[in-house]
Amino acid sequence: MLWSRDGTTVVLGGTEGNAINNSGEVAGSFAGATVWTKEGVRLSAPTNDSSVAKGINDRGDVVGVRWDSVRGAPVQAFFWSRSSERLIDLAPGLPFSQALDINDQNEVVGTVRRGAVEEMVIWRVPPADAQRR
């Protein structure tokens, strides 16, 4: 649901809402990583894996986590540029990573696991990667 300024409620559907930007777009999950616009339009991440969106900045760039529930492939942090429809793995080669939030400078905070140790990380996604078509 999305609360409007006048106190009414807009039902978005979905199973999980995790973040909202200043434009009223909500990042979460509805059969995969999803963004809802304030008009209620649903946009899905360009991936066939299981996924959930965890953060969204004011440009509408999204971060989250994806995994292959069939093959048991690694849990992978991702960056999704909606302007270029690109999905970028942020920690390829690691068995576990998750992206939890993003700011307007494309700095992404999350965690990675190396062996038995889980660590907080910050990824900086170059603007060229965010805008490339």
Task: Give the topology, please.
Layout: E1 2-3, E2 9-10, E3 16-20, E4 26-29, E5 33-36, E6 42-44, E7 50-56, E8 62-67, E9 76-81, E10 86-89, E11 96-102, E12 107-114, E13 117-124, H1 127-131
Antiparallel strand pairs: 1-2, 3-4, 4-5, 5-6, 7-8, 8-9, 9-10, 11-12, 12-13
Task: Describe the structure using short key phrases.
133 residues; 1 helix; four-stranded antiparallel sheet; 50% strand; mainly beta
Written account of the structure:
- The chain has one helix at residues 127-131, and strands at 2-3, 9-10, 16-20, 26-29, 33-36, 42-44, 50-56, 62-67, 76-81, 86-89, 96-102, 107-114, 117-124.
- Strand 12 and strand 13 form a beta hairpin.
- It has one domain.
- It contains 1 helix and 13 strands, in the order E-E-E-E-E-E-E-E-E-E-E-E-E-H.
- The strands form 4 sheets. The chain has a 4-stranded antiparallel β-sheet with strand order 3-4-5-6, with no helix packed on it.
- The model has no long low-confidence stretch (mean pLDDT 86).
